[in-house]
Amino acid sequence: MTVYVDLVFLTNLAVDSTVLMTTAKVRHLRPTRTRLFGAALLGALYAAMMFWANIPYLYSFGVKIFVSVLMVLLAFGYGGPLKYIRVFTAFYVVNFATLGGVIGLSFLLRSADSPWGAISYSENGGLILEWQMQLSLFVVALLISIWMFRSAAATSRKRQELEQLFWRIEIHIGDGRWTMKALLDTGNRLYDPLTRIPVMIVESSVWEEQLPAGWVKRLKDEPPDRLISELDVGSPEPFEWASRLRLVPYRAVNGSSKLMLAIKPDSVTLLRDGHPPIQVSRVLIGLDGGTLSSEGTYRAIIHPDMAQADSASSSAPSQPA
């Protein structure tokens, strides 16, 4: 078999450069191009050396790890043991992910009569897996696998960032306590226009048993002021939360003005691991007739003023809205 060392060198230079740049992207690092090129050049020279020097121990496991250590140091520096270990681990994760993607895509795209045709056995009973791949197919598979890995890493990072916005909340109304998962919406700027009390949003289905019959379904299509007008104050069994109801005007996405039915709770407590609980009493809870999360991840949306409130001052009693 004829091996072109220049192609081996250039291919490894391109692959190592791509892997190092992907590692930098995953770890949010910005090394200079000179450092990246120097580290990739080291890796490419090491790969080409096996065709120039017949020194078996140079290609042992320990030497390969040593070369990888030098490549990461050249590209990203040291920065302390913990930081270096994380970068080094990310470097190998990217390597394994992209190599696995290249091999998988090559077998997927290559036509063969039988998958067993590429498998044979050595004289000592060892299993030999034949893997042949054209350079053009290798480049395509490498780029696709890098793109897939970066997309998966970006999705994972976004999910982690979104997790930072999740809270557990406890809503206190009278003798009732309701606990649910909530999302902090930094873009929520809904206030009661008269009192400037912040308004958080909760799915009305949370209180389907407490609200008058049919309200949860009717809130999807009917204006809330019509529902309030139907309340019979003189009824033998009046609505227990009637004095807590509020109508909050807001502007819809299409620019039209609408009303939202809201409830005045006794307090809302925000809970999250690693943070002291925040109890907020100066808040209104707007009722949403639909589903806030299509996946059921959360059932409430927190106003940003609530998360920024001081737990000591926010728990103090306030004037009713």
TrEMBL record:
Keywords associated with the record: Membrane, Transmembrane, Transmembrane helix
Coiled-coil boundaries: none
Keyword Chloroplast among UniProt keywords: no
Pfam families linked: Peptidase_U4 (PF03419)
Transmembrane intervals: 36-55, 61-78, 90-111, 131-149
InterPro entries: SpoIIGA
NCBIfam families: spore_II_GA (TIGR02854)
Name of the featured protein: Sigma-E processing peptidase SpoIIGA
Taxonomic lineage: Bacteria, Bacillati, Bacillota, Bacilli, Bacillales
Gene this protein is translated from: spoIIGA
